[in-house]
Design brief:
The protein is α+β, with helices and mostly antiparallel strands. The chain has helices spanning 16-26, 42-51, 118-125, 129-133, 159-168, 173-177, 204-207, 218-221, and strands at residues 2-7, 30-36, 56-58, 69-74, 79-82, 93-98, 104-110, 136-141, 171-172, 186-187, 194-195, 198-202, 212-216, 229-233.
Length: 234
């Protein structure tokens, strides 16, 4: 099973063909895109994913074509709903269940920053304990991290909540395999400071099955998006 997660920047726009080319090279089984929009590039991206066999898709509605949202596309059928389930649109996270992929529980997220972020982190912390004891994964642009480990500054505002997830038993799958390494998935255009905003937090049982997790920074460096993507294999 191969999962790709990527913040594609403002819906992709004219970069949509390049985004699809990058995804196709990885041949993932599951894709989650953040900052997906119901704009001009929507059909290009969804049809392009379908052409790769990623024809099972969950695409929440939005209130505007300029709203950033999250989608999931897969080779196999899955069940999905907006997370938290009573959260108004546009969706900032999706909870999905994949019965044919090791009964995977997946939360694909693009969390807001600053004052709007804590309710989402609390919702993740409050997930039922059975969720953490199964094959479960929180993946996406969490806009969170640990200062000076996942950034070059101390500007993460709600680190204690992110760390609570780790204390509760979620495993930062990339950090667990790269304890002393620093890689950044987004660079500030003004200050040029780097941040590792994009994460894959795995349950203990799923973490043991991960055989590869890495970032592709080339797509960021060449301007396909302003974020690197995560690729994870089990």
């Amino acid at each position: 099973m191969k999962i790709l997660s990527w913040n594609i920047l403002h819906g992709g726009g004219q970069r949509a063909p390049d985004i699809l080319d990058a995804i196709e090279k990885e041949q993932p089984d599951i894709v989650t895109l953040q900052e997906f929009r119901h704009g001009k590039s929507k059909a290009v991206l969804l049809d392009g994913l379908k052409s790769m066999g990623l024809d099972e898709q969950y695409v929440p509605e939005t209130t505007s074509a300029r709203d950033n949202s999250v989608i999931i596309a897969s080779h196999t059928q899955f069940q999905a709903q907006v997370f938290p389930k009573d959260e108004p649109l546009p969706a900032r996270a999706i909870r999905a269940f994949f019965p044919d992929f090791a009964e995977l529980n997946l939360i694909a997220a693009h969390l807001p920053q600053k004052k709007k972020q804590p309710p989402f982190l609390h919702a993740l912390i409050d997930l039922d304990k059975d969720f953490l004891n199964e094959n479960s994964l929180i993946i996406g642009d969490l806009n969170a991290g640990i200062p000076f480990e996942d950034s070059e500054t101390k500007s993460f505002e709600h680190t204690f909540l992110f760390q609570q997830l780790l204390r509760d038993g979620w495993v930062d799958a990339w950090r667990a395999r790269n304890p002393k390494k620093r890689e950044f998935t987004w660079i500030s255009t003004k200050q040029k400071n780097g941040f590792r905003y994009d994460h894959a937090l795995a349950s203990s049982s799923l973490n043991k099955k991960i055989t590869r997790i890495e970032y592709n920074h080339n797509v960021r460096l060449t301007g396909v998006s302003d974020h690197s993507y995560i690729i994870l294999e089990c």
